């Protein structure tokens, strides 16, 4: 997994920048209270929002330390997939250019995390070792 350092570093920076500023500018609270709570997650929206952002920080640290990379990546991938369906899909594919706030960035992050988890690709041997 040492060969994945550059990708792990890039994803860690993205996760930190997607989380930490919102912790200080009320973004996490707004996401929990003004979005999650209003679409049916009340009264847990705020706790869910903070759990998501804290998981991003934890995943970033684990990626940088090269520890528990697969569990951190799996949790992050699950959050990204849910984010696609709950937040980004209604806006289409493009993040910028042909649209705004679409799924393309989450799609890319998911596959980068898969490459970090399986730097030699997913093979029959890889699948068998997880059975």
Automatic annotation (TrEMBL):
Membrane topology: Multi-pass membrane protein
Transmembrane domains' residue ranges: 5-24, 44-65, 72-90, 102-121
Annotated compartments: Membrane
InterPro entries: DoxX
Keyword Lipoprotein among UniProt keywords: no
Primary localization: membrane
Pfam families, sorted: DoxX
Keywords carried by this UniProt record: Membrane, Transmembrane, Transmembrane helix
Keyword NADP: no
Name of the protein in its database record: DoxX family protein
């Amino acid at each position: 997994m040492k060969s994945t350092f550059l990708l792990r570093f890039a994803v860690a920076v993205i996760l930190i920048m997607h989380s930490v500023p919102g912790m200080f500018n009320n973004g996490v609270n707004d996401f929990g209270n003004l979005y999650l709570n209003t679409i049916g997650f009340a009264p847990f929206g705020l706790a869910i929002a903070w759990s998501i952002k804290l998981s991003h920080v934890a995943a970033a640290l684990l990626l940088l330390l090269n520890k528990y990379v697969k569990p951190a990546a799996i949790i992050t991938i699950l959050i990204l997939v849910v984010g696609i369906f709950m937040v980004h899909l209604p806006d289409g594919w493009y993040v910028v250019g042909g649209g705004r706030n679409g799924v393309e960035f989450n799609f890319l992050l998911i596959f980068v995390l898969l490459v970090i988890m399986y730097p030699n690709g997913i093979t029959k041997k890889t699948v068998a070792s997880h059975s």
